[in-house]
Specification:
This protein is an alpha+beta fold and 595 residues long. 42% of the residues lie in helices and 16% in strands. The two termini are 29 Å apart.
């Protein structure tokens, strides 16, 4: 797990060390174990390493294959690399390292661009092919690993974070109207390739990109999730057996493929508890587990220790529990925002940031339960959508959109609002699912798009800010493909995640299985009061906010007057959305422009 960056000059100049060094400084916390760079004429590559597989110097990057004329920078983990390595040795390739990076290089030498389809895991990488004079970039199927880029007449640059690109300069930081519309409608999600900045893009999940020395570029899809295939011939017991086998394999792969200990982020919910149970079932003992809790509000508890303690006790894990009060949350919030590659309104971003800091002092790899709710239908709004009588944007929007287009016109400065970009995108995404079953189309959109730029991105950003690699077994692409064929009734029954609950019976304590679904709560960011209220008021009344003129002041004043009255359909604070967006711009974009 690492941070990667690179530059390809398109103006005839050589790539110099200043740009790469600038980007590497921003990536240092993603890879504390080694820094490397590579330069060849117009090309510069940089890498920060978190050593997890093959801890030797032979696995340092950038990694060069002189015979093939290629060099790679890679972020992620390839879980099937031992099998690919054996296959490539059988085809005549030799290796000097024992890790997964060199396997990607040799696979590219053997199979070219199609090699990406053979990789199973989470990854973002770039390979310079000197023979073709071409930069080849790829991102994993479900977007677990980030890959941002910016392109102008003079250069093409890429990096694991937006901060690295912004720090290097040359990014068009004009606000993007479509990006803002999506951000304020879909609780922070801007579907790839867009962002809220016009000059900052991200490679979509399941896609590759080629950039030639002359500046021509091409983005291609290499993987597509099918929602139109429903295997209705299998009964529930057979489905349960197949899902459990696929999940068990995913969990074990993410345990075995590491040369360092692997822990579990244990929230106390079904998903993370099931990971602990399956690891125990695989024979792992004294599993390292980690939980965090926050201050309560009258309306909501700030921890789920009752349930995480029950799981830890049941499996005799080596459990670590952290309680974080509101003063620390507020004091550390600016740091967390500075490590968000894009603004993230989910209240649990700061929770993951503070938890990851503690966990990174014990282990450098953890398993986490992200993705289970989207893949197996665990959210409360899915049954509400299923009850809708029509297939369309309106049936989705009334249960999900944070703001209607009409409210958007009251929220943003009039020059920043034109088309209803979000409805247009959702309409297209529902169509791309290629199914006439509305809820299947919604689940497909969630897994392929909305999840990527909300919980998945949040976990990567907040854990890698402390050099902690988070692995997500529920997003094993083979498991996801299998689950997409699962009849919806086996997902949504009994409050959601029906089939996972059945798998858990007899394995987990009943109180964990049958409880009402919980979240990773930081109630102070939902019920905005006292010092949190003053913090947000200060941001939205700051000179920077006033000069930017992003929001209509009447709307801001309305939210400030009674923030708890204005919650989204998913129970998020509309005031926090505005404050977080403005604060992210101040801490990331404004700072880079001023430096």
């Amino acid at each position: 797990m690492c941070g990667i960056c690179g530059e390809l000059r398109l103006d005839g100049n050589a790539s110099g060390p200043d740009t790469i060094e600038s980007m590497l400084r921003a990536l240092r916390r993603r890879g504390p174990d080694h820094e490397g760079s590579y330069f060849s004429a117009a090309l510069g590559l940089g890498h920060r390493r978190l050593a997890v597989i093959d801890l030797s110097e032979q696995a340092n990057q950038p990694m060069v294959d002189a015979a093939a004329g290629t060099v790679i920078v890679f972020n992620g983990t390839i879980y099937n690399y031992p099998q690919l390595r054996r296959q490539l040795i059988g085809l005549g390739h030799t290796f000097r390292s024992t890790g997964d990076t060199e396997v990607i290089l040799k696979a590219y030498a053997q199979w070219g661009r199609s090699s990406v389809s053979k990789l199973s895991g989470m990854f973002a990488f770039a390979i310079w092919d000197a023979g073709r004079q071409e930069l080849f970039l790829a991102r994993d199927r479900l977007g677990i690993k980030p890959l941002y880029y910016t392109q102008g007449k003079e250069f093409f640059r890429f990096a694991s974070t937006s901060q690295a690109l912004l720090g290097a300069g040359g990014v068009d930081t004009e606000l993007d109207r479509a990006g803002l519309h999506h951000f304020l409608s879909l609780h922070g999600v801007v579907p790839a390739p867009g962002t809220i900045l016009q000059g900052l893009k991200k490679l979509p999940p399941g896609h590759t990109m080629r950039v030639q020395a002359a500046g021509n570029s091409m983005v291609e899809r290499y993987w597509q999730l099918n929602a139109d295939r429903v295997d209705a011939d299998k009964g529930e017991q057979e489905w349960q057996h197949d899902i459990q086998a696929a999940l068990q394999l995913a969990v074990e792969r993410r345990l075995r493929i590491a040369d360092v200990p692997v822990g579990v982020l244990l929230s106390g919910g079904l998903d993370s508890s099931l990971l602990v149970g399956l690891l125990n079932q695989a024979g792992v003992r004294e599993i390292q587990t980690y939980s965090a809790g926050f201050e309560d509000q009258p309306e909501e508890r700030g921890n789920e220790f009752e349930y995480s303690d029950a799981v830890a006790g049941h499996f005799a894990t080596r459990h670590h529990k952290f309680y974080i009060d509101n003063r620390k949350v507020l004091a550390r919030l600016p740091e967390a925002v500075e490590h968000m590659t894009e603004p993230m309104v989910g209240q649990d971003a700061i929770a993951f940031y503070l938890l990851a800091e503690q966990v990174s002092q014990h282990v450098s790899v953890v398993q986490s339960g992200q993705g289970a709710d989207e893949v197996f239908g665990g959210y409360f709004w899915y049954p509400r959508m299923q009850a809708e009588s029509s297939f369309g944007v309106e049936s989705f929007a009334r249960h999900y959109f944070d703001r209607s287009h009409a409210e958007m016109q009251d929220t943003l400065h009039q020059d920043l609002v034109s088309d209803d970009f979000t409805s247009d995108s959702v309409r297209q995404l529902l169509h791309e699912a290629n199914t006439d079953d509305f809820i299947r189309a919604v689940l497909h959109m969630d897994v392929t798009t909305l999840m990527v730029d909300d919980p998945v991105k949040r976990v990567d950003n907040m854990t890698m800010a402390h050099g902690l690699e988070a692995r997500v077994p529920f997003l094993d692409h083979e498991l996801v493909e299998l689950a997409m064929q699962l009849p919806v009734r086996y997902k949504l029954a009994h409050g959601g995640k029906h089939i996972l609950k059945n798998i858990a019976r007899g394995l987990l304590p009943s109180k964990v299985i049958d409880r009402e679904k919980g979240y990773f709560p930081v109630p102070a960011l939902k019920y905005v009061r006292s010092e949190f209220m003053e913090f947000m008021r200060g941001i939205l009344h700051s000179d920077a906010c006033m000069q930017r003129g992003l929001f209509q002041r009447r709307y801001v004043d309305t939210l400030l007057a009674n923030p708890e009255r204005y919650l989204t359909p998913l129970k998020g604070s509309k005031l926090w959305h505005l404050a977080l967006l403005e604060f992210w711009l101040q801490r990331n974009v404004d700072r880079c422009l001023a430096s």
